[in-house]
Structure formats: structure tokens, C-alpha cells
Amino acid sequence: MSMIHSHTRCELGEGAFWHPKRAEFFWFDILSHRFYGEGRHWDWDEPVSAAGWIDLDRLLVASASALWVLHLGTGHRHRVQDLEADRPDTRSNDGKADPWGGFWIGTMGRKAEAGQGAIYRWYGGELRRLHGGITIPNAICFDAPARVGYFADTAAQTVFRQSLDPATGWPVGELQVFLDLTDQGLFPDGATVDAEGRLWLAQWGASRVACYGPDAGYLGEERFPATQISCPAFGGVDMTELFATSALEGMDEEARADEPHGGKTFRRTARLNDQPVRGVPEPAVVLQG
Questions:
Q1: I need a surface site. Which of 88, 219, 242, 279 has the fewest CB within 10 A?
Q2: Given this model, what pLDDT does residue 1 score?
Q3: What backbone phi and psi angles, to 5 degrees, belong to 255?
Q4: Mean pLDDT score of the chain, rounded to an integer?
Q5: How much is the pTM?
Q6: Residues 6+ positions from 186 with CB-CB distance below 8 Å
Q7: Are 234 and 192 within 8 A, CB to CB?
Q8: How many Å apart are CA 65 and CA 85, to the nearest integer?
């Protein structure tokens, strides 16, 4: 059974992640310019969408125009890297730390204009553009033992897989299509990888997080009481809790009233074929080196 982690109704809940050192769950409401922790929040003056942990007290946070270091105790933040700061028509979207200490972040048009987004990696103080021509970047996550990364273009209904250099984490070889969901009418959103290398993928409009094996075979799902499930993350002290954000974006007043749990954040014990599932702790972001 799904359990409501937070009754706050987000316009666009996203960026779910569990801080393994603090044992605390964090998430965003992108369109409300707000970042949430346990019983507290931080407001920005522009959209904020994704984060990774640096140490016990500091996070790297992606906003529409920059990467920031946020001190959780004091609330102090400082800008460490511009992110398409010369493009007021774009904003950040999905992002995640990689196993080499880097941070991947996607950008997109503020009105989801076709092909206006990109995927970047910030590593060793350098921001490098990896892929362009993306409409809605999502599903950024990593399988460290397999040395692969994933990301999606929601508008294209496609999840991609990229081989990564085992020493540095930079992409090597050609980008591959992992899942083409067009025939099923499904739209990939946020994603995470479990300890067995399986991809857990939120599917916008389908009320679920679906699970796929490393061979892209469909294995099962966890369902939630909101249509627009947006981003999953494993957490809890034993990494067996599956958190999921959701969104109200695009719903009219009647639809919002008909879906009382829309926009809320959920958690449940993850199971697959009646067996428990364990996630992998998020790696730290390394500021330098």
C-alpha cells in the first residue's frame, strides 16, 4: 500500500533523492521554485529541479540558470557554475550525481519547446555539454558496476543508455536506445537503478513506476494514487523504501478536484514478484578533482 510521505501538493514535484549520510529525503516543486526537506523548505527566485549531496551539510542544487552549493544548516547558498544563464527561455530539469563524483543535469525550454534542451555533466569544475536537441530531459541515473548511464527524452518517449569510461565517467561509444515506449503510449520521466541493475522508471500519466531489467525487459510496477508520477528514489535506512513525487501541472480545476492525492509525495516498501527490492545509495558530488 502506498503511504503519503508529504501531503504538500506540488505543481511539479521532481528531483527526488535520499541523502544517505543524513537519512533524509529531499524533493523539489520546480514550478513553485521550492526545495523540500523533512519539515522544512528553501525558496528560490527561479525554478529549481535537482540536487546531489556533497557532504553532511552541503548539497549541489541545480536551478534554471546555475549550479549552487546550499548549506542545509544555515540556508546560505553560493553560485558555483552558470547553466545556460544567457538563455532565459530555458530551465534545468532532471539531474543526478554520478558514481565518479560528477553531476549530470538536463535543460529544457520553459514551454517545452521541441529540441531546445540538452544534457550536461559537471565534473572537476568543468561543465561539458554531452547531448543536445532534447525536448524534456529525464531519467538520469547510473549503474555503476555496468559502467552505464541512462537518460530519457520524455517527448520522444525514449530512454537512452550510454556507456561510460570506467576511470572518469565520461561517455564513450555511441548512444543507444534502451527503451522505445512510443508503441505503448508511455512517457518516461524520472528514474533510478536498484542494487540488481534494474531500472525503475516513472511514467507520466500512468500512475506508476515501472521496472525494467538491464536487457530492457519489463519486470513489473509499483502503482501510486496520482496520475502524473514524476520521479522515484530509493531510500530508508535499508534502502528498501521507494519514494515517488507527482505533479498537478496541466490539470484543470475539475481534474485536480477528482485527484485528491495529485501532486503529493509517496513512499512504499518496494517489491518485485513479491520479493523485496533494495536501492543503491546516491554517490557524493565532488566539488574539485
A1: 88
A2: 52
A3: -65, -40
A4: 96
A5: 0.97
A6: 157, 203, 205, 206, 210
A7: yes
A8: 4
Q: Burial code of 11-41, b = ≥16 C-beta within 10 A, e = fewer? A: bbbbbbbbbbebeebbbbbbbbbbbbeeeee
In this predicted model, what pLDDT tens digit does every residue of 78-94 receive, in sequence order? 999 999 999 999 999 99
Here the cell at position 174 is 555511441
pLDDT less than 50: residues of the chain = 289
Q: What is the pLDDT of residue 283?
A: 97
Tell which residue, 159, 199, 212, 205, has the closest CA to residue 185: 205
Contact 246, 279 (CB under 8 A): no
The pLDDT of residue 288: 75
Q: For 194, which DSSP code?
A: B
Report the helix count and the strand count for the chain, using DSSP H and E.
Answer: 1, 26
Other C-beta atoms lying within 10 Å of the C-beta of residue 44: 19
Q: What is the DSSP letter of 286?
A: P
Q: Which residues of 172-186 are buried (b: 16+ CB within 10 A; e: fewer)?
A: eeeeeebbebeeeeb
Catalytic center residues = 189
DSSP of 177-241, one letter per residue?
Answer: EEEE-GGGT--EEEEEEBTTS-EEEEETTTTEEEEE-TT--EEEEEE-S-S-EEEEEEESTTS-E
